[in-house]
Backbone:
């Protein structure tokens, strides 16, 4: 049987390859790195995590992202299996040692006899064979031009910013303390997964002044700052109002200063462990487009980070995505050329987990088609199905923007309509329904 080809060995492409091989079919994984580098990636490993080391909430009872984790595990997903193996304490979140994680994904795929690797850049969309395009938001310019030429769409893009990473030994723990918000977590390691930097009102106001005055990265001609709201640079948030950050990534709620329990911080900057050794911490929610020199000056104004040394400074890059409601069907096939499927962030889902989930679906759908079967998407009552439904028709093509999974994408429960007061009952009802429906979808494939 002819192999199924995948362009891109990121989270989506790696998961798609795994699912195809699990179905007993050969698959060829094409990856341009490290021969052709991107400014954001550091290695040629599969599933390299660039912006963060977190897969976000792992709560499959009260959170749509956690439910998506559950669905991927139920479907035998490689990404979730390797994330579990290289998990780091992070409160209620699923964070990983990013280098060990991507190396493990690479090794698992290399050890699979049905998966073969073909290095090098694919510059044009293939006209024959079964292909999955999982090139992510950093699709190469040549392939991007080929996609635009076929679809007739103009360039669709948003800007994604990378948060800085700090060497743990340079953090002043006489000022900072370890605590997860609301002491969340079942173990002491989980409950102390974050380092917290407290700010007085004076500290906060000075920080905002410095942030607003800092030198920012210039955009290239023809680029516009069409940010995705879930990943706004902190300076853009600050420009929307001086209190915005204090009600966002710098909110002080659920935290008590271990050095001075009686004094409530006006704002708090949190850092989350970035590797298994605990030597690196990323500044949570601090994506930025400040110039490097300005970043060091501004971030060292944070109490506890006055002597911080940075393993990586923040950055900003252009992310491309398709107008999927117009271009892709619910089997993730390009309407203009159905032998091509798309998966991952290039489809307009936002986030590591969502990208990998679209890879999982694309792989299963491509394998089913090669075996002479049609595989519909999971029901829209599931996290995976809700995402597919959104990007392939649920969203308005005229205003389409990248989307994280959330309960707002789920069909409502008629018996539980209502506002915030109903969340404790409504969210478990959503996830109970999602689990049952997803299991039934899986059972239909056996």
Residues:
């Amino acid at each position: 049987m002819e192999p199924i080809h995948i362009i891109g060995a990121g989270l989506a492409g790696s998961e798609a390859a795994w699912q195809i091989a699990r179905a007993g079919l050969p698959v060829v994984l094409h990856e341009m790195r490290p021969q052709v580098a991107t400014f954001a990636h550091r290695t040629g490993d599969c599933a390299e995590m660039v912006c963060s080391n977190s897969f976000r909430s792992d709560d499959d009872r009260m959170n749509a992202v956690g439910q998506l984790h559950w669905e991927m595990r139920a479907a035998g997903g490689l990404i979730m299996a390797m994330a579990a193996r290289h998990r780091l304490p992070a409160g209620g979140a699923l964070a990983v040692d990013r280098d060990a994680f991507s190396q493990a994904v690479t090794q698992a795929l290399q050890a699979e006899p049905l998966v073969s690797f073909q290095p090098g850049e694919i510059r044009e969309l293939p006209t024959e064979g079964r292909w999955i395009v999982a090139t992510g938001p950093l699709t190469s310019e040549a392939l991007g031009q080929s996609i635009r030429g076929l679809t007739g769409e103009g360039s669709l893009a948003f800007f994604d910013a990378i948060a800085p990473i700090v060497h743990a030994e340079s953090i002043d723990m006489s000022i900072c303390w370890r605590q997860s918000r609301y002491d969340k977590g079942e173990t002491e390691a989980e409950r102390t997964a974050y380092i917290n930097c407290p700010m007085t009102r004076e500290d906060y106001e000075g920080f905002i002044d410095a942030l607003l005055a800092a030198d920012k990265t210039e955009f290239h001609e023809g680029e516009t700052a069409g940010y995705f709201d879930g990943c706004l640079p902190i300076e853009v948030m600050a420009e929307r109002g001086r209190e915005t950050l204090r009600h966002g990534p710098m909110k002080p709620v659920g935290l008590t200063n271990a050095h001075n329990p009686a004094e409530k911080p006006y704002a708090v900057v949190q850092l989350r462990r970035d590797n298994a050794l605990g030597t690196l911490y990323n500044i949570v929610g601090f994506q930025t487009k400040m110039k490097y020199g300005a970043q060091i000056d501004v971030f060292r104004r944070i109490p506890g980070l006055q002597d911080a040394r940075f393993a990586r400074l923040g950055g900003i890059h252009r992310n491309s995505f398709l107008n999927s409601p117009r271009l892709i069907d619910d089997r993730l096939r390009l309407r203009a050329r159905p032998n091509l499927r798309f998966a991952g962030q290039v489809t307009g889902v936002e986030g590591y987990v969502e990208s990998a989930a679209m890879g999982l679906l694309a792989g299963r759908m491509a394998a089913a088609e090669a075996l002479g079967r049609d595989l519909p998407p999971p029901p829209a009552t599931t996290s995976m199905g809700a995402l597919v439904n959104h990007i392939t028709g649920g969203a308005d093509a005229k205003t389409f923007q990248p989307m994280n999974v959330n309960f707002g994408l789920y069909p409502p429960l008629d018996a539980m309509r209502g506002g915030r007061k109903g969340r404790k009952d409504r969210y478990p009802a959503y996830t109970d329904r999602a689990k049952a429906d997803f299991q039934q979808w899986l059972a239909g494939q056996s």
